[in-house]
Amino acid sequence: MARAAVPGGLSARRAWRDATLVERRPETDSAVTLVLDVDGWPGHLPGQHVDVRLTAPDGYTATRSYSVSAPEHGDRVELTIQRVPDGEVSTFLADGLAVGDAVRLRGPVGGWFVWRPGQAGPVLLVAGGSGIVPLMAMLRARVAGSPPFRLVYSVREPDDVIYRDELAAIAATDDVEVRLVHTRRAPEGAARPAGRLQGTDLLTATGWDGGDPPTCYVCGPTGFVESAADLLVGLGHAADRIRTERFGPSGP
Ligand SMILES: Cc1cc2nc3c(=O)[nH]c(=O)nc-3n(C[C@H](O)[C@H](O)[C@H](O)COP(=O)(O)OP(=O)(O)OC[C@H]3O[C@@H](n4cnc5c(N)ncnc54)[C@H](O)[C@@H]3O)c2cc1C
Predict the structure, then answer these.
(1) Is the distance from the beta carbon of residue 84 to the nearest atom of ligand 1 less than 6 Å?
(2) Which of 54, 81, 109 is the last residue in one of the domains?
């Protein structure tokens, strides 16, 4: 089956563009959503990321990758930044970038870790910490009649849940299940005690009703992604149905 092309030609995706911050939305104590207006943005697919480049007055530059958190919408690109203690770029983006300020940005990047609206078959999303960001873009791109999704989202404690209210609203719909896994502290009265992600939190390869196996998207810190992918393989999921994206070293 032919795949829909990734938006933008190669040279368009490699070009650095001016991006102006138009809105900041706090998500948790340590995460903020930035809405950027990007000159001539070629569009993107849920799951893709961009490169953001900061330049200091002395010419020093630092570049980091950030996933898009919302589906394509004209020249707007939404990112959600989790502040990493002592992190060079995340602390500046989370705390220092003000509405009206500009950064340089290029992309979109990535053609495998994407969910294309209209793609057939059920979907299992597995997020650790800020790994929820590209998976949220997939959830937000769903429309009525899309295949069923299950999100399994691992956080240290309840206050760490990014997009909390929106996820609660999504969980109230019939065809998306949202399961929170708290690794250090669960909310009072929670049915699931705090603890690391286990196979019983996920889905077997036969999916919901013994039907089509889901395509799995796993995103988060490297250690989390590796252990979640091992659990999925242990549950019988074929390796080529498990798509992974690694953000960095540590995690929930
Ligand atoms: C494809 C891709 C998509 C990404 N999407 C997002 C996103 O949507 N939102 C987001 O917040 N981040 C995302 N990241 C992570 C991001 O690129 C940076 O690595 C992160 O913001 C830290 O950068 P920094 O400059 O603040 O930290 P640095 O100055 O590079 O590192 C400071 C310290 O933090 C450690 N560290 C670095 N990265 C992480 C991390 N991710 N978690 C924990 N510790 C870390 C380093 O080992 C070092 O000790 C993504 C990464 C990749 C590869």
Answers:
(1) yes
(2) 109
Is 245's C-beta closer than 6 angstroms to any atom of ligand 1? yes
Measure 89 CA to ligand 1 centroid, in angstroms: 8
Does any ligand 1 atom lie closer than 6 A to the CB of residue 67?
yes
**pLDDT, tens digit, for every residue of 48-76?**
999 999 999 999 999 999 999 999 999 99
The verdict on residue 37 lying in a domain is yes
Model pTM?
0.94
pLDDT digits (tens, 9 = 90+) for 84-93: 999 999 999 9
DSSP string of 14-80, one letter each residue: HS-EEEEEEEEEE-SSSEEEEEEEETT-----TT-EEEEEEE-TTS-EEEEEEEB-S--BTTEEEEE
